[in-house]
Amino acid sequence: MLKVPEHQVAGHIAKDGKLGPLVDDRGRFYKPLQGDARGENEAKFYESFSSNKNVPDHIRGYFPVYHGVQLVEASDGSGKLPHMVLEDVVSSYVKPSVMDVKIGSRTWYPDVSEEYFNKCIKKDRATTTVSLGFRVSGLKIFDCQESGFWRPDKRVVLAYKADGARTALRKFVSSNSLADDSVPDCAYASEVYGGSNGILMQLLEVKAWFETQTLYHFNSCSVLMVYENESGGDEERRPQVKLVDFAHVLDGNGVIDHNFFGGLCSFIKFIQDILESSDNRCENGH
Amino acid sequence: MHLKAPEHQVAGHIAKDGKPGPLVDDKGRFFKPLQGDSRGEIEVKFYESFSSNTEVPDHIRRYFPVYHGTQAVEGSDGAAMIVLENLLSKYSKPSVMDVKMGSRTWYPEASEEYIQKCLRKDARSTTVSSGFRISGFEVYDHKELSFWKPDRKLLNGIKVDGVRLALRKFVSSNTLSDTSSKPDSAFASSVYGGSRGVLTQLLELKTWFENQTFYHFNSCSILIIYENESIHDDGARAQVKLVDFAHVHDGNGVIDHNFLGGLCSFINFVRDILQSSDESTDN
């Protein structure tokens, strides 16, 4: 039985009869192959990537597992359409906080149509993409005070400037109230961002690969960050980084993905700063 | 003070049509005319800030020209000039390359007109595709015993393969004007490689760029210089320098991801050439 995913923060949403992704109860995510070239391109990437022997195993773990293409009943009632079958990266979480960050100081790339270029560059300049090398695309954070999820409006998120992005990244790991203007306490910064299995370590591993990989250019791709809020059990936050959205991936052609790399380094610096300032606060007994 | 035009300028403004160009003296100093509009001001402001910035580590400071303030110079209509270290004064036969770093040369603070101009130039060159472009270079031909410089128009149209070829030619000893002969990359390991070669220096710079949030080096170049005189006996004395700070802005707590991405890409190009030249000498 397929249903609309609960924790989707960015991209097309299968709601109100619209075409969008679906999930099953076996940890799989079904992404409809859209009419234009994008779906084809994304499937082509997954096919190439899953059989590419030059991708080290530890890097493969940062990408959703690909299970091919299947005909599935579409969410908009238009009948059976081909869908890419992927690992549902949030399925093993009970109450996941999720954030989607689009990496790169530009989302366009050489040889796109003028129309697409204009659309991209307008958005890139209006958001933090040009200035910071990344932009927050969507987020859904579990608010312990409210015992529910805080999900700011998409237009608010797209209007973030550097301060807004920083605040969102702080709120992402905070335990105090998210919806108001209270200063985020970053209570979970060291558990989620820090530690040997934390987000920072994972991002640094990805960064090391991007310093030399010339296989793919990950135009317009996102880093998805997820962690668990459900208390009890083993109390582990299990923070995870995944790369998602490969509709615009192209061959690297012997050149590194300097656009993604630069943006990723900038994003890493933001995380490091938050970690450092929250560590300092702990040391000072705050 | 005996001033003359510099000999080995490969990119940037030169003295033309009555407009002042840079000058050098015989005491190792380089005089750069303050460019019109705000650019000259920005460059001076950068040098002033940088030279007194105690948070810039010493080993990074050496990748920047020493700044000697501004001076009004005779014969330039009393116009102020930026006085810098002449980066070539300690070289007798220098090969020089200017590489403009970053996948975009424009920046948010620039005027719309400037941004559009840059976008066009960036798209036509290897800036967008590779994260850097070669602005110019001059290399010494050890067979012809003279300097060779590619046609500027030709350079502007090169693609990725052309960049690789230029980077090979830059460290070759064979006839460079002859396009049919393959560059021998004879000096690749002495210039690009080694514990003090270009690659090592670029990697040091890269580490600084991964953390520094002081400046955004929009449209800046990396200059690569090496000595041809007695290269076999004394080595290449290769040096990397950052130049051209007319568009530098405050980092405002954000790293210069544009420069860093381009720099990392450039490092890979240099490393590839070094590795393939090492492999061919092994054979």
TrEMBL record, chain A:
Protein name: Inositol polyphosphate multikinase
Matches recorded under Pfam families: IPK
Catalytic activity: 1D-myo-inositol 1,3,4,6-tetrakisphosphate + ATP = 1D-myo-inositol 1,3,4,5,6-pentakisphosphate + ADP + H(+); 1D-myo-inositol 1,4,5-trisphosphate + 2 ATP = 1D-myo-inositol 1,3,4,5,6-pentakisphosphate + 2 ADP + 2 H(+)
PANTHER family in alphabetical order: INOSITOL POLYPHOSPHATE KINASE, INOSITOL POLYPHOSPHATE MULTIKINASE
GO annotation terms (biological process): inositol phosphate biosynthetic process
EC class: transferase
Family to which this protein belongs: Belongs to the inositol phosphokinase (IPK) family.
UniProtKB keywords: ATP-binding, Kinase, Nucleotide-binding, Transferase
Gene Ontology molecular functions: ATP binding; kinase activity
Organism whose genome encodes this protein: Brassica campestris
EC number, as in UniProt: 2.7.1.140, 2.7.1.151
Secretion signal span: none
Domain of life of the source: Eukaryota
Function: Inositol phosphate kinase with a broad substrate specificity.
InterPro entries: IPK, IPK_sf
TrEMBL record, chain B:
EC nos: 2.7.1.140, 2.7.1.151
Basic and acidic residues compositional bias, start-end: 14-26
Domain of life: Eukaryota
Tagged with keyword Secreted: no
Class of this enzyme: transferase
Catalytic activity reported: 1D-myo-inositol 1,3,4,6-tetrakisphosphate + ATP = 1D-myo-inositol 1,3,4,5,6-pentakisphosphate + ADP + H(+); 1D-myo-inositol 1,4,5-trisphosphate + 2 ATP = 1D-myo-inositol 1,3,4,5,6-pentakisphosphate + 2 ADP + 2 H(+)
InterPro entries on file: IPK, IPK_sf
Keyword terms: ATP-binding, Kinase, Nucleotide-binding, Transferase
Region (Disordered): 1-26
Pfam families: IPK (PF03770)
GO biological process: inositol phosphate biosynthetic process
UniProt-recorded Gene Ontology molecular function terms: ATP binding; kinase activity
Similarity field: Belongs to the inositol phosphokinase (IPK) family.
PANTHER family referenced in this protein's UniProt entry, alphabetically: INOSITOL POLYPHOSPHATE KINASE (PTHR12400), INOSITOL POLYPHOSPHATE MULTIKINASE ALPHA (PTHR12400:SF101)
Function: Inositol phosphate kinase with a broad substrate specificity.
Protein known as: Inositol polyphosphate multikinase
Annotated organism of origin: Brassica campestris (Field mustard)
